[in-house]
Amino acid sequence: MTASANALNRFLASSKPSATFGVMDRVAARRAQGVDVISLSAGEPDFDTPEHIREAGIAAIRNGHTLYTQVAGVRALREAVARKFQNENGLDVDWRRTIVCSGGKQVIFNALAATLNVGDEVVIPAPFWVSYPEIVQLCGGQSVLVECGVQSGFKLTPELLESAITPRTRWLILNSPSNPTGAVYSRTELQALAEVLLSHPQVMVLSDDIYEHLVFDGLTFFTLAQVEPRLRERVLTMNGVSKAYAMTGWRIGFGSGPAWLIDAMEKLQGQQTSGASSISQYAALAALSGPQDFIRKSRSVFQHRRDYLVAQLNSTDGLRCDVPQGAFYAFASCEALIGKLTPLGQRLNSDEDVVNGMLDLAGVATVHGSAFGLGPYIRIAYALDSAALERACRAIRQFCESLSN
Predict the structure, then answer these.
(1) Which of 1, 178, 236, 405 has a CA 20 to 30 Å removed from the CA of 397?
(2) 1 domain residue, yes or no
(3) CA 157, CA 153: separation in Å to the nearest integer?
(4) Environment class of residue 65 by beta-carbon count within 10 Å: exposed (0-12), middle (13-18) or buried (19+)?
(5) Domain count within the chain
(6) What is the pLDDT of residue 1?
(7) Three-class SS of residue 181?
């Protein structure tokens, strides 16, 4: 018998590659050909990792911290994670109920892989981060996608949550601030969702707080287990250093939850990666324990960019964008562009066509909203310097003006 694609795991065979990384690959290929492309597709800060964190990584190498660590992470980092949850989120966390993984994505994967059986359901508000449904599928579960449109600020409501829960529901994934919309749940909104969840004790909650420190306009960030302590034994609170400290490549995520779940995730990780990079762990320790001024400064820069971008988008014919409250994404409606013709005579039949046309004709890379579960929108990441952002906005405007009916 010859091995072929038929030999693939059936869950993997039916899964889709990441749409965001697909766009990033196209950008890299064009740049390799000498084409000038402005990328508004990457979900990572454009700043360098702060120097004291980089130096901590170098020191870890020089001091010989280059061997295996405990599977769930070095104790000093897990203690720092527990302090972070205590001091910033009001969660009474023991370091033994924390886990450190190779990025936030692995925290999510480990939790779902450790708990889902075939046929189990996971409620995911849409728009959603592109990897949520794919991870659910890879773990044998079934995603229940709940459309949350602009009328609700792209946020899940208690009524929508109640209608989505069945006896087979195992998890709810909640992301605030949101990728791709930048929506932020208030304390009141989280409490209303909590009231529904209290009536369904079989439902766990994965609270993805990775953009926690990127909240604008003086808003206060809240996480579900903080708002409703009665749910703490059913909530995995996930975070990491990638977005807050510009450390996407260091690959460190962490989480805290009920002891049985953390133990199961550690057991899985022990047979999977054996733990996160030792060097990256010591850099993450410096991030959590050292100066925090980088967060305040980067948040101010991102808010300034957001204000500029949203103003430019709303002054461009065919685009409409509400003001996002957090993260570094704008989620702009391109509904008015659907059906129009490009100068090359190509008709834009979908938001994916809009994104492709914008890349081909304007040299600007974005990601289509339908990849995140809601179209016709485009996601624009404003994690790039002001000069490049201004050039991108001009190119987007020119592209929209070049279209005809």
Answers:
(1) 178
(2) no
(3) 10
(4) middle
(5) 2
(6) 45
(7) coil
